[in-house]
Design a protein that fits this description.
By secondary structure, the chain is of the alpha/beta class. The protein has ten helices and seven strands. A seven-stranded mixed beta sheet has the order 3-2-1-4-5-7-6, sandwiched between helices. Strand 1, helix 3 and strand 2 form a beta-alpha-beta unit. The longest helix has 18 residues.
Length: about 250
């Protein structure tokens, strides 16, 4: 059963809230929803959502795609088992398609296809958040070793993204533009940095801790300070957010 506090962490808020703000811009007004008799403002697909994903922050219905789903499960998330590089949805099935820290968990040979699929099934926009660059890669390796030292075992997701290697910013831009050409979609791409590296290291040091009081501090006491942490966003960044707006002719 999902509760508002279970596995909540400020790092997730810093990751998801910029995406929430972009998605909110596509929400039609209440009057327009009534005129078109739409129960939900927009349809949203998250690739690699797990059991929670963006739903706790967006507070709107979300269709989540993943290879498997482990509890807790958010009540607003509809779970669909599928592969990022071969989505089981028709073209333009969703208004918004997004993924957060998913692409680095795919082998490099599948990343271009996954981006193509996200753009294929979207109507309005695609949002991709993913760690990029040497600084982020070095941090992942350090975090992997810290987790192993603290818990005496590998954390599967860290192990996976270190071994696959992080995507390259230039490659992602090229994949997005190429997908737009293949699908005959006119797109507008903007890229922004997300999560200052110093703040990221601080938050993830707390995440790796096995100390109960440290976990209480990061998962409960620090939550009201999320707006302040967001004000401190500046380079160097751990993550890049690629915002692909699909322009109608």
């Amino acid at each position: 059963m999902w509760t508002p506090w279970y596995r909540w962490h400020p790092e997730l808020a810093l990751r998801y809230l910029p995406m929430v703000e972009k998605i909110q811009k596509f929400r039609p007004t209440k009057a327009r929803r009534l005129a078109f008799r739409r129960a939900d403002p927009i349809s949203i697909l998250e690739i690699g959502s797990g059991g929670l994903g963006i739903a706790p922050y967006l507070k709107m219905p979300v269709t989540g795609v993943d290879l498997e789903f482990k509890p807790p499960f958010h009540p607003l998330l509809t779970k669909v088992v599928s592969r990022a590089e071969k989505l089981d949805f028709a073209d333009k099935s969703f208004d918004v398609v997004m993924s957060s820290d998913m692409l680095e968990h795919l082998p490099s040979s599948k990343r271009e296809k996954a981006i193509f699929e996200m753009i294929r099934v979207s109507k309005l926009c695609v949002i991709i958040g993913v760690p990029c660059g040497e600084i982020a890669a070095k941090h992942d390796e350090e975090l992997r070793l810290e987790y192993l030292k603290t818990h005496g075992k590998e954390f599967p997701f860290l192990k996976e993204q270190v071994e696959y290697g992080l995507p390259d910013r230039t490659d992602i831009i090229a994949y997005i533009n190429e997908a737009g050409k293949k699908l005959d979609r006119k797109i507008k791409l903007t890229v922004s940095g997300n999560e200052n590296m110093i703040i990221r290291k601080f938050l993830m040091h707390g995440w790796t801790s096995s100390d109960f009081l440290v976990n209480v501090f990061f998962r409960k006491i620090l939550l009201p300070f999320i707006p302040l942490l967001r004000l401190l966003e500046r380079p160097p960044y751990y993550r890049q957010i690629f915002f692909v707006e699909i322009i109608k002719d």
